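quick one: thiamine diphosphate bound model?
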Amino acid sequence: MSVKFNQLSNAIRFLSIDAVQKANSGHPGMPMGMADVVTVLFKYHLRFNPKNPNWINRDRFILSAGHGSMLLYSLLYLSGYKSISIEDIKNFRQLNSICAGHPEYKAGTGIETTTGPLGQGLGNAVGMAIAEEIYRKKFGSKAINNKTYVIASDGDLMEGISHEAMSLAGHLKLKNLIVFFDNNKISIDGSTSLSVSDNYKKRFESYGWNFLEINGHNEKQISKAITKASKSNKPTLISCKTIIGFGSPNKSGKASSHGSPLGDEEISLVRKKLKWNNKPFEIKQEVLEEWRKIGSKGEQLEKKWQEGIKKNLKTKSDLEKNYLNSDLNNLESLIEKEKTKYFNSKPSLATRQCSMAAIETISNLFPQLIGGSADLSGSNNTKTNNSKIINSKNFDGNYIHYGVREHGMASVMNGLALYGGLIPYGGTFLIFSDYCKPSIRLSALMGLKVIYIFSHDSIGLGEDGPTHQPIEQLTGLRAIPNLNVFRPADINETLECWEIALKSNNTPSVIALSRQKVPYINPKNDKENKCKKGAYVVNITSHESKVTLLASGTEVDLALKVQEKLKENNIESKVVSVPCMELFDKQPKDYKNDIMENNSLIFTLEAGSIMSWQKYIKDKGMNIGIDQFGESAPYKEVYDHFDLSEEKIVGFIQKKLRG
Ligand SMILES: Cc1ncc(C[n+]2csc(CCOP(=O)(O)OP(=O)(O)O)c2C)c(N)n1
Ligand SMILES: [Mg+2]
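yep, here:
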């Protein structure tokens, strides 16, 4: 007996209903509504191999509406991924279960990205589709030709980030990007007519997308739309008219099916209505077998692909050596060479210029570095002589003009990293890191190698004033787990921080950079990367020093000037540069004690909020920083205004020493 289409999609519906019921929490409505769309996608279109979830040329399937996580887990289990068993589904939302409340990215599981914060998956998908274009251009369409499919809900499309990401995708004509819009017209508060009256057709067509509209419960319409979208030379949004909670007599079409268990009574009514006579979590053998057949088709697909690319050995080895398995072997010697060069010339440069010099040399060796900026290329110094612009007609490049779309840029960078093998870096002003924050948090949560270049990192930017002068941003970023926040003091440190960022495979990095010039402060030409320890001694006037000055970035130079003045007053001191607190805090006790000697008064110095420095102060020390909004004026005057001058700081220290 052949298995009917709706038995396949009902398998998704009931696994979702049962798992949410057992967990007594979760979101059944969306998987019930979108089950038909994804069944068609997996059955007829998606090229994937559950036996090798890392196949580089697999089609990507992104659940942007992460609250519908049971939809994804059901699909992965049914189609035969080893990552998810029926026991895992029974453990939905329990500690350590792969079936977490919202999908959590894990390489090799079929969970392609972490979603839940609405809109993020859309941005990630744009990044993946750009990555596919970059690889296709490089290795040819026989080697790389995958599609990126996304499910986006009403909420996803209401989020600001969706406007940024979709607009960029249209501009770049990402034809292999196909978004299914779960157009159920319901969100948590009720009907979407409460809050939105966008004309989606006009909206998407104005971005340069195709817009198709179908009944999301009609197998033929769904399949035809996907075929049409696949042949297009633009990205496509397929608006799927669906019923949230499809099959539930009392809750379908209502917000009540969105985010809570249906309840035993209602579930038995759904079972009756959809003629599903199985016990909870039970899938009839023939239905499971049919689903497994859908999954196993991909094995052949991948085999054929492997054979095809084997014929082109150069492609295969280039792809593997320079991208997928690249260990950045030559990086250390390259950085060492550069450090020596600058030790000899000792240039005074803004650290943003230092970063540009670093990028220029690094990108010579590593084609997988994909740069960009949110319309501040010249200010962030992200674009170098080696930058080749990516545009809709040519993806043979390494630089993206993201436009004024910081949030979109950050989530696209996550997608570029998730695709595999590429290392994205992107710039804006540090103050606008706030516009990237939800995606930075996800880079950290997923452990992605994404490098954020944030220039204009303090009141040192001067005249643009308090709207542009970051105060609390460094502290806020430092509060994000698994994120390294670097604030280098000169070209030597900038090169070292870049090296660490590139070598940090599971941790994203922020590199905060100055607008204003700073002198070269590195005292000796060490081969060792001193920034690796997060903090190190730059200069010490006597081993009997009573004062330790900890500073970061541009304030290291200020600390050195304070040290000179202290010496004139017979006060011995030690200046410590702290380019990365996160790395310093992880050092062994001995190293930390060495830096922060017991008999020394600790002073910290950073032109920003003092909150992240408070932990270093013992009873009598002092945090010197700024805990109020900045001022618009030439930068030296602003520093003075906030008491960040040698004279004033020496005065503070003397006062503290007097007790
Ligand atoms: C950025 C963000 N804001 C708010 C939420 C909380 N939230 C989860 S789903 C949702 C909206 C639900 O409507 P829709 O997106 O249409 O999903 P559906 O109910 O149709 O499945 C909201 C506000 C979230 N997950 N992410
Ligand atoms: Mg909805």
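The longest strand covers residues 177-183.
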